[in-house]
Design a protein that fits this description.
The structure is a homodimer.
Chain A lengths: L7 H4 L9 H10 L1 E5 L4 E3 L7 E7 L2 E6 L5 E7 L4 E2 L13 E4 L3 E7 H10 L1 H27 L2 H10 L11 E4 L4 H7 L4 H15 L2 E3 L2 E4 L2 H9 L9 H4 L4
Antiparallel strand pairs in A: 1-8, 2-7, 3-6, 3-8, 4-5, 4-7, 9-11, 10-11
Chain lengths: ~240, ~240
């Protein structure tokens, strides 16, 4: 397959590697660029779903509302990823709400076209099964972490996923991808818990934090502390590609 | 499709509703019955996977081992369910370990046959995508619960999944499907935490517990208490079919 004119936002999506040439070529003409301001909703949970989206700039928060009005954060998804595609398997409704965490940009594409491609191209169905199986394993690990890791270890794990884990000797600088309140809620913590846990992590591993910049002089020390209660080996295959 | 001679263990698997007649008919001849004693391992995480399994009697524990030697429980799966089929998408290796929680029986079936059916029959690939999407939503809810529900609410949620949630007037009797230590670890709790949380749940909702039997005189009260921090509506569509 060669997609000489495939736009960058399209060629970066792993799922679409199973797609037919004809499908890939048909997408740009059906795409629309959307800009969202910080705090703007893209869709609500249970809304009828007509589009799936590829994020081209910024981060989007996926969440559900609980009966008592709090938000359960499902994920915070960066540029280069796709959202909303699983609506196909949820009776054509979005299985969560999506809100811009900052000014951002997305490409919208029709779900009906994706559905047809999955139904008629076995390679595409297999590609989607592969990405869903990978996601399933990541979710299992997330459940495991919420149970077995303490709060400082969960922050350590979050930081390790943002760096090249094989470079254990040199000091590394990590820029938090979004603000600390959001990092806390992504990790399922109250802001106060996050703050206390970050102090503990600094004391245990020697990392320093200045605003949104974290400096780690000893990645090995950070991983030894954070990964002891995790079932994945280090550097972790499961997370390395995710960066989220 | 008519599967007059389809054994009961085969016809109960939702995933196989997308399978071709020829595939379904070919399975019994390729199947083997296996009996496991309590505590016996079926396979280890990362073992090369040749078979998938349908549980016909008992419960099986799926877990991973962490670096410090503790177990991260992924699920405890009852009779009538399939395990190991996602190995197809994990380079032919089991993505977790499986251990019998009691004396149990399974049917083993060759993964290669399932793989071929998924690759050649689009209906089967779609059926598998559907079940994986459903599972994904359940996992998201599990992550949400570990964060937002307190321990008594998590036990309440576990109990509610074992009963007909629409019968809110009459008293119901619930038999715990496996022993309390295992229920605790399935819910990600230490036994002591579980014990304290169960006492709190009794006080809050009026349930009574005698050995493995739980009596609930007021399902409405149990659900009001347990489900307030959950994003699913009650009776909950997401869990109703699971019974696990």
């Amino acid at each position: 397959m060669s997609h000489k004119e495939t736009p960058d936002w399209l060629s970066r999506i792993p799922l679409l590697r199973g797609a037919s040439d004809a499908f890939i070529k048909s997408l740009p003409a059906q795409s629309h660029t959307r800009n969202l301001s910080k705090g703007q909703m893209l869709f609500l949970s249970d809304d009828p779903a007509e589009y799936f989206f590829i994020i081209t700039k910024g981060w989007i928060k996926l969440f559900r509302e609980t009966l008592d009005g709090s938000q359960a954060i499902i994920d915070i998804v960066p540029a280069g990823h796709m959202i909303g595609e699983t609506s196909i398997f949820h009776e054509g409704r979005y299985p969560f709400s999506a809100e811009a965490t900052e000014n951002m940009q997305l490409i919208s594409l029709p779900l009906s076209a994706l559905k047809t491609e999955i139904e008629t191209n076995p390679q595409m169905a297999l590609a989607m099964l592969g990405t869903m199986a990978q996601h399933r394993k990541q979710q299992e690990q997330e459940i495991e972490h919420r149970t077995l890791q303490n709060a400082p270890q969960r922050i350590g794990c979050f930081l390790l996923r943002l760096i090249d884990q094989t470079k254990t000797d040199a000091p590394v600088t990590i820029n938090l991808p979004y603000d600390k309140v959001l990092v806390a809620s992504r990790l399922g913590m109250q802001p106060e818990t996050f703050s206390r846990a970050l102090s503990k992590l600094k004391a245990e591993t020697g990392i320093t934090v200045k605003g949104a910049t974290v400096t780690c002089n000893n990645v090995h020390k950070l991983s030894t502390y954070s990964c002891i209660t995790c079932s994945s080996e280090f550097p972790c295959r499961d997370m390395a590609s995710g960066k989220r």
